[in-house]
Design brief:
Elements (H helix, E strand, L loop, with lengths): L2 H21 L7 H8 L2 H11 L6 H24 L4
């Protein structure tokens, strides 16, 4: 893997962690939820084009974005479920 692919992969993952946390505030499939889920796409596409990464790696970037969303939402839910001391 080249540094460009790694950079876009990290961007896709890290951008989506806070977005995954943010999307838990909205009703599933509502307009705000939909916007938050897709908010990182323009940045990932721009970075991919700017760095010239091959199209072959788009599924990897999508998978990492979904993983970031999932982990961000999950971490937020776990934090809310912890009992207050």
């Amino acid at each position: 893997m080249t540094i460009e692919i790694i950079a876009v992969s990290i961007l896709a993952f890290l951008l989506n962690i806070p977005l995954g946390r943010w999307r838990t505030r909205y009703k599933k499939l509502s307009l705000p939820w939909w916007l938050v889920v897709h908010a990182s796409i323009p940045f990932i596409i721009a970075m991919r084009i700017w760095l010239g990464t091959p199209r072959l790696y788009i599924p990897l970037f999508i998978a990492l974005a979904v993983l970031g969303q999932f982990l961000g939402a999950r971490a937020f839910r776990k934090k809310q479920e912890e009992p207050c001391e």
